[in-house]
Amino acid sequence: MHIYKPTLIIDELDTVLEKDPEFFGILNSGHSREAGKVFRVLGDDHDLRMFITYGAKAYGMIGDPPAAFATRTLPITLDPKCVEDNLEGLSG
């Protein structure tokens, strides 16, 4: 986000948050330009560096996002295909 300002796309966010809860704080910080930064200590010299986290993010996950995160998202709910759904003529 800091250098190239991409759109960040994360799949299976629920499993990522289980393994690294700090990642949620980084994602959550990027909802506004003012708050969209994190500080990290790097290297053997313990240099303090700021990283920009503000930017577009899309994620997929099973279940509901944490409440603080949900207020900053636009949900798109996907439902499984039903037996009666006609998909003839669609190619994949």
Question: Could you describe the 3D structure shown?
Answer:
With 92 residues, the chain is of the alpha+beta class. Helix content is 21%, strand content 20%. It has three helices and four strands. The chain has helices spanning 13-19, 22-29, 67-70, and strands spanning 8-10, 37-42, 47-52, 57-59. The strands form two sheets. Strands 1-4 form a two-stranded parallel sheet. A two-stranded antiparallel sheet has the order 2-3. The longest helix has 8 residues, at 22-29. The model has no long low-confidence stretch (mean pLDDT 86).
Brief write-up:
This protein is 21% helix and 20% strand. The protein has 92 residues and is of the alpha+beta class.
Task: List strands and helices in order, with pairings.
Elements: E1 8-10, H1 13-19, H2 22-29, E2 37-42, E3 47-52, E4 57-59, H3 67-70
Parallel strand pairs: 1-4
Antiparallel strand pairs: 2-3
Give, in order, the helices and strands: EHHEEEH
Determine Rg (CA atoms, Å): 18 Å
Give the termini separation: 32 Å
Mean pLDDT, to the nearest integer, reads: 86
Which percent band covers the strand fraction?
Answer: 15-25%
Order of adjacent strands in the largest pleated sheet: 1-4
Main beta sheet, described? 2 strands, parallel
- Helix proportion of residues, in percent? 10-25%
Tally the beta strands.
Answer: 4
